[in-house]
Fold AMP-binding protein.
Amino acid sequence: MQANYSALTPLRFLERSAAVFPDRTAIEHGSRSYTYAEFAAEAQRLAKALRARIAPGDRVAFLAPNVPELLIAHFAVPLAGGVLVALNTRLAAHEVKYILEHSEAALLFADAELLATVDGVAELGGPAAEVPVVVIRDAEAGAATGAAAATAPAATAPATGAPGDAAGVVRELYADLLTGAPEGPDLPWSVDDEKSPITLNYTSGTTGKPKGVLYSHRGAYLNALGEAHHQGFDGATRYLWTLPMFHCNGWCTPWAVTAAAGTHVCLRAVRPGPVWAALDDGVTHLCGAPTVCSIIADADEAHVLVSPLRITTAGAPPSPTIIRRLSDLGVQVVHVYGLTEVYGPYTICEYQTAWDGLPADERAAKLSRQGVGMVQAETARVVEVGAVDGLKDVPADGETLGEIVLRGNNVMLGYYKDPEATERAFAGGWFHTGDLGVMHPDGYIQLKDRAKDIVISGGENISTIEVEQAIVSHPEVLDVAVIGMPDARWGERPVAFVVRASASQLTAETLSGHVRGLLAGFKVPREIHFTDELPKTSTGKTLKHELRALAAAEGAR
Amino acid sequence: MQANYSALTPLRFLERSAAVFPDRTAIEHGSRSYTYAEFAAEAQRLAKALRARIAPGDRVAFLAPNVPELLIAHFAVPLAGGVLVALNTRLAAHEVKYILEHSEAALLFADAELLATVDGVAELGGPAAEVPVVVIRDAEAGAATGAAAATAPAATAPATGAPGDAAGVVRELYADLLTGAPEGPDLPWSVDDEKSPITLNYTSGTTGKPKGVLYSHRGAYLNALGEAHHQGFDGATRYLWTLPMFHCNGWCTPWAVTAAAGTHVCLRAVRPGPVWAALDDGVTHLCGAPTVCSIIADADEAHVLVSPLRITTAGAPPSPTIIRRLSDLGVQVVHVYGLTEVYGPYTICEYQTAWDGLPADERAAKLSRQGVGMVQAETARVVEVGAVDGLKDVPADGETLGEIVLRGNNVMLGYYKDPEATERAFAGGWFHTGDLGVMHPDGYIQLKDRAKDIVISGGENISTIEVEQAIVSHPEVLDVAVIGMPDARWGERPVAFVVRASASQLTAETLSGHVRGLLAGFKVPREIHFTDELPKTSTGKTLKHELRALAAAEGAR
């Protein structure tokens, strides 16, 4: 052992917090709670059980909402020498099958409510159907989903969660796995190589097969410290798990909150009642897509908070309306930007006191930008699209569109089993996000659009984000998505899907008039569809291809 | 360039803060102040000037109080590829000579008030006398030291600070060096190898000769993030520079406060008036030896603070009286422990809410312990003394004495040009502090004694052996022992027991004068006891605990 070197690993954070604050509450989940000593002991127990089943480097998949077992797995799986694969709970059976087979998962842990998906995988056959399943039974399952869920198919899953009952696949209960864990000394909270993989996260690619994004112990450690720094985590932190842990490992927050010895408040599903109950119980921080912000702001339970709450949000810029409404409730909203490939957030819209004096709309415009590299990250760049050899920055004029590229310890090890895609993504020594944006004179980047979401109408580029922001600035609009549809005359035309506030009688004409007052005429959608909700990924990104299909169907009628 | 790796370096922190908060005040120093943009620009200017003078890896020495130039040098010297050697301003000329020669410094920057020391080095001759000197003239010099200093020899130094005037050594003014800096593009805020050296700090060793402790970019980066986390630095931080930057690079705080984009408030000397003026101007954090705590608590200006202040203190546990007095003023005191070899603090006495209910004395006893490894450190151990092969922990009973050993990214690269001492210090894969302590059942360590016989007085390490050697160099002294005794103001003070030659009439005053000619003033014992013989073991080792009892009895009389 070398006296003056330790391989960086977030495992150290749980070792430390359990040693220093053994009796502090680490995890709350309904009626269950764990102290830090218990958290560490559970991680050791699970790790020992896993060690008896897997070889070093094996992938271990989890299909579960934000339950303590998944949080514990963020430590237990790497502690056992494995690589955690946290699956999106909304995936269809064939998607889960693909990931299990691509990752060659040695084990699948599944929440009892998600066994319908697992059954679906079993029915599809193939190697995925042979992966042994460990069933997590969570007493909060019924409580969280409420009466409505009691009749939903998934709620019957616990009954099918008995060992070895479905499709011939070995199934055992999580509790039994732990009970059967071998005794023995604790596993060391350390790794030999800080660049070894810790987790594997599959991107929800809007097109094609999902890619496996490999994270390292070093990257997870540094990003966790960065999150703790920017979110301001300390021992008094009560972090509410509204952001799915399966999304970029919850932006490394399982490790960050643990480093600060704060308290994790778990949550199976983001619904207004339980979220507001948690806020009233002293939650200090939460993260999530703008949807989470809307749910909090629009809830019947909404009221001015006694203690301050900080929401870190990503996926799309929070609308000025939402920011103002949350601010009135005593909530500070911080906007960040990142991707699965960079461990979640990479940039943060750092607040400048000089903005205090700006008119509300100008201030909102500043706040809606994606910002600057975090303390553990590097400086983000916006470069000319396609210029791979010798990346060339676009002018920092806030107008010239380019591709956002990132680099450093925040960037993934690579795409699992896909060296070509990795090489392509890392061309020129920078990770190419595929996101288009501009660089402002103050060094803040702003996302203008995903490359494929630009609408080109009559030869003009229309940023759908710009149009969306214009529409959502109407006080009666809750949510919006703008897409491009083929148009015989203009090549493409913008089409808007709008969710109105409840009881709003807003018409397309009125809304068009509002937008016309804000944008050039060619950007104003001629076609506006009102809808009750927008199809989204679990991470809050609108599924625009579904809207395109919908618009095509509408157009054909 | 690799897309997914950056060598860790604290240089990144200044690059980022200057890019994100260019107009925020980074440094205040009397009537001078620097924004973050100016801070970075000054670092670039100085680095470019240095690049024209030094080769990569060259050592650049600074002899200066906490002035902006030294803070800037913490970035500029490594930016230029050099290694910063920040010298203790209280060192005697022959000590500075030794360090300049051992480090083979290419340049010496000296504050004009410290030119008497530099003149002393010139007079001693040898290679140190040939090191080119750059003179820093600080307009705050007079203001800080007050009227008394105006008549002191050092105050005449600015006059001797004119280029090339003393002892034939090349001297130039800092301002001229900067003016002459070559133009050209900015140097990159990055390094190729994160394990390359960034600074070299000399300790007062036990053998008399100071040892050079090498820090790495990686260690400085991680420790800075750890300091920022534990002290809670953020953009609103106003950090008062009471801790000398020449002590373990101010515990990595030049980099930590910069990472958080807080404001550095510089200070030439720790005096009650200026300190309290700064506190009233909204200082949020400061660090220092218990002396600093005493100065603040005992000042005539002391009053209840409007905004909270956190003091992080080390060197000796703060006394319960001081903690209570500071608490009454609205000051939170946090106790940390470390050594030069571990970048300053390694453990922190983390507060436990369970202590709230303890009686005051029991609580004070808890708070006086050295605590647990910080978030970026490893777990501290207390091991059986002397058991190098296979370190064996002493029982965690709060009673069994052992040696405190530490490891990980907090530990120095090694002793400069002293592989044997490095190997000895790193025996068994752990850094041996030489400090004796106990492990409490709750995992907190407590220092019981300095095995190395170091006296820590006013935050300065005094090697008792060095003082003993100075005393025994007097022809009428036969034997001597120096011990540290608790001191309300200085933490500890050196006390000497001296055996005179028979018939010698040597007085304490004469002996003091002799020692003062050899050592820095703070090392000279104010208390000298003459005795007929020293208590010793059969092997001739002085029984210092018996002397301590004797000194305590003398003091009680």
Remarks:
- Residues 38 and 555 of chain A are 58 Å apart (CA to CA).
